[in-house]
Amino acid sequence: MTAPVSIENATKTFGSFTALDDVSLDIAAGEFIVLLGPSGCGKTTLLSILGGFLSPTKGRIAIGGRDMTNVPPARRPTTTMFQDYALFPHMKLKDNVGFGLRMRGVGKAEREERAKGFLDLVGLKASADKKPHELSGGQRQRVALARALAVDPDVLLLDEPLGALDLKLRRQMQDELKSIQKRVGTTFVHVTHDQEEAMAIADRIVVMNQGKIEDCGPPSDIYMRPRSRFSAGFMGEANFVPAKVKSVDVGGAKLETPIGSIVIARSNFTGGAPVEGRTVTLCIRPEHFRRATEAAELGTALGEAVVTGIAFFGTHYRCHLKATDAPGLSIVAHMPQSAELVEGTRVALAVNPADIVALPDHARN
What we know:
The chain is α+β, with helices and mostly antiparallel strands and 365 residues long. It has 9 helices and 20 strands. Helix 4 (108-121) packs across helix 5 (137-150). The longest helix is centred in the middle third of the chain and has 18 residues, at 167-184.
């Protein structure tokens, strides 16, 4: 089964501390939502409120159109999967997976059949009679997922379930988790602080900060068109360049920056239409910088910089640069594998204006 989720003005306070601050979010049935943010941002508090482990100080939670605000966890159409798996060490895998069904009074034969079906879903049917200690970390994670899905929840809540796995296995499990979610069609709400994980699995990412939603949308939108400086910085490496709007016309806005002038489209302003005289902050991802000689007709020159540090990352060189005309401005740029750069090299930089996002600069205006 699956169901939509509606969160309306959810607030949670602990004494004088506000962990969740007037959060509203609609989740479609069958959607894979990822709550992303740093420690203390409110994402786990929101997940706990959805699961019924915490009650909101204010606000309303609905699942499948039914008010669940004050319904206890056992009576909600949700299950929660935790990072530590919490498998019973003395039980066989089929009994671990079928435990929730047993608590609901499902007979042994039906329980085992359904448990084996969900173990098959996660690729472990042949291991049904093994115990958890005989499995790897990734396999135990699959068993925990099978157990959570076996009770047929409308919504599956996942609290950093991949956090205990090593990098290679975590990447593998991200693919498997996404594939399984598509097959079963259950609404997934997944908490993580790993930006790459969020982009790999989410239909939509909800970026949270200080108890509020900073940004919400498909991974490509969150990365390429962030709505706030926090969202831009948290979703990956970014260069933030101060700029002032010099003029505006139907074709776009001309901006002056410490490393040169540039014209960008009005649609690239995320905080509203550009206004002459106002300051903004330009967000430029490292991979969008190019050497002027490589930028061809799409690039706009943005001055010269000196390489102060360089590291090879396989797919690219990650370069630290200092702008010649603005020594106080540090830039991180990804250069191609073929780049022959060393510290001290002078590089003429360029960028495609379509790749630049102008963020509101409330502190300056």
